[in-house]
Structures are given as C-alpha cells and as structure tokens.
Amino acid sequence: MESSTPEFQAHGTHIGAVVYFSSASENTARFIARCQLDAQGINVYRIPLRMNEPPLAIREPYVLIVPTYGGGNMKKAVPPQVKRFLNDPANRVWIRGVIASGNTNFGEAYCAAGDLISAKCHVPYLYKFELMGTQEDMHAVQHGIVTFFADLAAGKVDVPGMKEAQQRTQERLKTHAAA
Known about the structure:
Largest sheet: 5 strands, parallel
Distance between the termini: 17 Å
C-alpha cells in the first residue's frame, strides 16, 4: 500500500513526519496547526476520526501525537482510532516517538496514552501537554521534534526496529528504481 498524502506537506528539506489524532473537539488539531511543523520540514498526517474513512498509511519515520481519552480509565486512554492505526504493522514499524496531551483532571492517568504507546511500541515518550497546549508547549514541541529527527539522522537515538525499517526502505527504493 502506498503512503497516504500528508495533510500538511513539508516545506524545504524534508526531515520526518508527525502523525496525529484529534477528536471532534479539535484540540489536538489546533495545537498541530499552531506548531506549523510543515515549515520545519515535517510532513503532517492525520489519523481519520471516523472508522468508516479510509485508513491512514504511513511509510516514513514519524512521531505520534495523541490525546488521552477515558477520563482517568487507563484501559480507555488510547483512542480506538489510534489503536487501529498502530495495529497495522506497516504503520507501527515507522513510529519513532510519542507525544501525548491530556487533562490534569484525569489525575494519575494524565497523558496516559503516551505512557501506554511508549511501552507497547518501545519508543521514547518525548513530551506531554495539557489540552490545546500553551505557547511554550508549541515552541517546545516544534523545536523538540526538529532536534529529535536530527538526532535520529545522526544516529544519536537508538529506536528499536529503526535499522530494520531503514533496510526495508532501501530495498523498496531499489525495487522501484529497477521497475
């Protein structure tokens, strides 16, 4: 399956991708729009809200940005749409890190979706912020993602499965070049 088209296409030198999910409240979508990651060389993809929409297919390294659901119930912290996306091994192999939003009213389950995804996918939990985030959160995420992808490219971050994913990418490139 080919990669989906980004919601926001990277400008200039492409350095990586962000995949995000936003509910009908659009809190995460507004946060992503304020970050202007495409201007930083980041492709931005959105996981569909409705289950009857075509699934998202990612074929490049990405950081996942996800809200926390469940009102404090850890079993419901990861949105079902995100579970569906990550249950596709072709998508999961490209995850390199996770950022989560949440509501401090959830107590110990604040931003728990990030904890769960980090542990399940064996990737670093890079940042957490409340609801739509502050201006400070936006700058931290924008700078942090750019730095994270630069560190990945320089081999300063060891993400399980990264070498295998890079090898598969090279094999696919060779196959396409030969066709």
